[in-house]
Amino acid sequence: MPEVATHNPEETTALGRSWGQSAEPGLVVGMTGKLGAGKTQIVKGMAQGLGIKDRVLSPTFSLVHQYTSGRIPLVHIDLYRLDTPSQVIGAGLEQFIYDPTTVVVIEWVERWFGNEPPALVPPGVYRAVRIETLGETSRRITYDDTRA
Ligand SMILES: Nc1ncnc2c1ncn2[C@@H]1O[C@H](COP(=O)(O)OP(=O)(O)O)[C@@H](O)[C@H]1O
Ligand SMILES: [Mg+2]
After folding, report:
1. pTM, whole model, 2 decimals?
2. Which domains are assigned to the chain?
3. pLDDT (tens digit per residue) in 43-83
4. Which atom of ligand 1 is nearest to the CA of 138?
5. Is any atom of ligand 1 closer than 6 Å to the C-beta of 13?
6. I need a surface site. Which of 2, 11, 67, 93 has the fewest CB within 10 A?
7. Pocket of ligand 1, candidates 31, 41, 110: which has the most ligand atoms within 8 Å of its Cβ, to mutate?
8. Secondary structure (H, E, C), the chain
């Protein structure tokens, strides 16, 4: 399983940027990691890599932000304020992961799927990402792709 060590926010953003540059429609990135781990930093990088010029802010209250100015539409979901899968479904978020034309990135994904990858529509790829906080600026990022 790929593992990347980062030592400052810029290195984490750079990893996200490379994912954004190589992303294909149907990619769903699900991220686990405690508050301040760097999940949103990765999304900022993905937006850059997709050529999105808008500023990326965490959709902590709105649950979802959509960016359409890049190479592929980006959907950014943050489940921090939700606790259970039924709340996620109730909030109407399920439709997004079944859209094979977008890139979707989800913070606090374990609140929705636990440790299971979601069922995707082909040609979707699910990238399971775990960010561990090792120190003030030290992070270990592991990820693994499952293809629909
Ligand atoms: N190596 C690193 N990778 C990512 N963020 C880092 C790193 N070192 C320090 N930070 C800081 O940690 C915070 C991460 O915030 P954020 O991306 O919003 O976390 P999350 O979305 O996981 O809650 C930022 O303030 C960032 O500057
Ligand atoms: Mg965040």
Report:
1. 0.97
2. 14-112 (3.40.50.300)
3. 999 999 999 999 999 998 889 999 999 999 999 999 999 99
4. 1
5. no
6. 2
7. 41
8. CCEEEECCHHHHHHHHHHHHHHCCCCEEEEEECCCCCCHHHHHHHHHHHCCCCCCCCCCCCCCEEEECCCCCCEEEEECCCCCCHHHHHHCCCHHHHCCCCCEEEEECCHHHHCCCCCCCCCCCEEEEEEEEECCCCCEEEEEEEEEC
